[in-house]
Amino acid sequence: MTGRILGYSAVKSAVHDMHIDALAQYAGEQRIEVLRASGIRNVLGVLSRMNRGEALYVQATGIFNLVVLPLARLRGLRVVYYLHEPTSLIWKIKKSKPHNVLRRIGWHLVQFFDCRFASHILVSRSALATKARECFFVPSKRLVIAPLLMPSEVDSDGLNRKRITYLGRVDEKRYFREFLSYSNVFRGLGFEPTVLTGTPSRLSSYNIPTECEVIAERHFPEELKKQVIGETAVLWNPKRAEIAQSGVTADSVRFGVPILLTDYDPSYELLVGEGIAIDFDESESLGFRNLLGIDQSDVVTKSSQLFSREHGAEAFRSHYQPVFN
Prior knowledge:
Largest sheet: 6 strands, parallel
Shape: globular
Strand order of the largest sheet: 2-1-3-4-5-6
Number of strands: 12
Radius of gyration: 21 Å
């Protein structure tokens, strides 16, 4: 492909920027220009200047897509849509509170049209691809397992990481309380328990131990995340659902940080097998006993190798080229 790719996100966020950065790295190797836009006015302005055959990469789900995606197709652009979390309508309704059911149905219909307008639908892992195939609105022939996360450069020399960091939403109540309950254990092992969350308003409903540091920002700059994770010895993964969007797991590998996992996590076998995750056995606390034996330099090296193979240049050549060529 020659020409340009427009990376479209609904809001500016570290996650959206990370995905479009990954796309830009691949496009740069192919001498393709990547434009960035957010907000419907900005996107429509850029679309009006794009030529037939160029690509719109959609890193957003929302009602504005019902305007943006049809217009892109009418102009002869290819629409590549990133599906964050494919779930069936029955699952959405089952997990919704009664007053949110209509909203869930509306959101589901938006995703249905997003997928119908897209020439390629991207998901980030095979576990999500399996779930996507169970959703009637995802055409299987357009589904692509695509690497969208790129590792940050991490200096493995002289690492002095002391934090055990809970990275995620604090409304995962059971898991957040579980993390807080182990604060004394972490302190006893020489680690500093830390909460890094983008949902600060929810913290008031918890009794936060004094030994646990809380860093709460509604919109995290990527640099702040890098700083905190750069001081982190182990990440605690609160996402244990079968189809969890394991952004926490992805961050651990991006930054070369070992992660505390359970076998419910979709990435469990791969990461534990590579030696860059710790097997947390709730009944025996095996993960806690293994904390002191972490070779952080080894984790950084293996994380870099894993991402090169699964999400780096090799994966981009095998997965992205069929999409954008």
